[in-house]
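Appendix B, record 7
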Amino acid sequence: MTTLTSSRGRRRAPTRIERAAGRAAALQRPRVILALLLLLALTCAMLLDGYLRAEVGGDQRVRSGADSSEVPDTILDGGPILTFRGGQATTVSVPAKTIALTFDDGPNPTWTPQVLEILRKYDVPGTFFLVGSMVTRYPGIVRTMVEQGNEVGVHTFTHVDLSYQSASRVDREMEQTQLALAGAAGITTTLFRAPYSSETDAIDNYSWPVYERLGKDGYTSVFVDTDSDDWKRPGVSDIVKWATPKGTQGASVLFHDAGGERSQTIAALPEYIEKMKAKGYTFTTISGVMAHRRTAGAGTTAGPSLQAAHHRATGPTLYEGKALIAAVAVAEWTVPTLSVGLAIVGAAVLARFGMMLLLARRHHRQRNRRRFGWGPAVTGPVSVIVPAYNEKECIANTLRSLARSTHPIEIIVVDDGSTDGTSRIARDAAGSLGMTNVRVIRQENAGKPAALNNGVRNASYGIVVMMDGDTVFEPDTVRELVQPFADPSVGAVAGNAKVGNRTTVIGAWQHIEYVMGFNLDRRMYDLLRCMPTIPGAIGAFRRDAVLAAGGMSEDTLAEDTDITIAMHRAGWRVVYQEHARAWTEAPGSLRQLWSQRYRWSYGTMQALWKHRGCLTDRGPSGRFGRVGMPLVVIFQVVTPLFAPLIDVFTVYSMIFVDFRAALLAWLAVLGVQLLCAAYAFRLDREKYRYLLMMPLQQLAYRQIMYLVLIHSCVTALTGGRLRWQKLKRTGEVGTPAGAG
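Structure tokens (predicted):
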């Protein structure tokens, strides 16, 4: 046995690389926060868009038979305009032969412009009671409406019945609509019409306090005394008839310019205006009616009084309103863009699932044919390299499993400066097992790549098997793993890594991921000849090929991915051997899991960037660059980055679009994943009961992986580096039987 100088107990100053890593790590926190803020901003944009798209209901929801004992009779029997001047509730009626033409539920991009054009053509003003959410979406229409001389009022922000809302909700509905008007047209208004309101005699004990509260705030509430009922779409003639007041009575007439299909309204409006003008009626706004009252019947007042309810927005109200309009514009652009992008990503993911199933089935049938073989059986001894850093809990089990190997091996344990007696435990275990084929090499702590390179240099045989210090092999693992080397074109072989500690929730989630995500992928990549990664837990290489590639590089955290891509670029074939199984101890806590996956994700990005030149290469290197690298980038980097937005979009659809359809879509995708997982479990002969954890895995575990990937992307952008990260092990994975 050979022993090198130990660094145990020696304190040293940080290296230049470690100091750079520290500086990069210091930069990571604000960038991680920035990335999370970006995700939060996109989420807020979607929530804002959903809030704005809350469905506007029809005005048919009017309460009847409600108790109105607390409402003054003068109000119930009064006119359609309710004011609280001087704190006294008063109603105002529309003068004879006068029409206050009012429209509810707009603006709408289809119908409102047509209504405005008709009013402009006949030189008739209207009063539009606008839904704030619609104002924010179509500010240009509102601006045109006001500039044309029409009057506007508040119809709440989300078209909600205020009678049953809290005081804070009432205030919010009014204030948000006023901000929308300020941002769209630079004005605020004192007019209000409640959604689902009718004539004043419909005011009840629930709604009266709302009108009183708003009256004290300076609002004039506007009701209806003549309803066209155009929302029923009864036909043009009936709309005109129902909107016509009796005799020469004046009226506050209700039409709708939104809230549904309004083609009959558009057709009826010119006919109605012409009919009323022929009968000697004049048209005015609500402010015009109020001005007529103040002038004691002097006739319709022209000029500014038609928009007397408007007040110029200034100061914070104006700027906050413009900010609201801008935010809505961003949301209006963001959600459709995301919809298209996520649809593309979803289609790509489903296509990948289909390709995985097809190619995995083909791979399994091809490799398990009775006559399949790689060539003459490989029976010569091989070197097994075990890099170890503080593996006192696991190293004895690892050596114990190798002692049962049915293939001749030498074992090289490279202790990378452990401080827990790993090398001593390894020597003791080898001695107690009577293993004369074990060498323990100690080196100063230099990282896993350096430990592997040390092992490769000291290997006695042409094939080297690499495994982790916490991994357990089955007796036939090495024999199965090295058989593909009978094919002289094969330069490296990936084994089948299995999770041994799967009895915990986190372990079960990782078990599903290993069987489905890793092994199905490797079958697919094997047939496409673009395997991106040979797992560090179980892989085999031609020693000369590793040395020719410069050994295991320290340029990346994913030395396994780095060397695998290097093998492809050198022209070697990399294959997957499903029957060579290794049992590894997956991280047992979320913190440890984060640390491991962070290293994997970041290291993979580093390796892809390092080998980006293969995109333009010819031959085997170019094949990997134009087949393997795009697949890895799309499905291991880009798609997972979009995945949080897919979940957010699903929730958005459930809340604001169609709950049932969104839920069915989510369940359908989950069903496809379950199908793939079930097939992967069948190929690996695993127990299906673990698939019961899959729905919870999708809801919880997957979110952690998203955040890890975001963290990795930010680290990649900062250029930070990390040294070999040691995970806490328990040593509970002893034998394959015990691991099941």
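Remarks on this record: The first strand starts at residue 81 and ends at 83. The chain has a mean pLDDT of 85.
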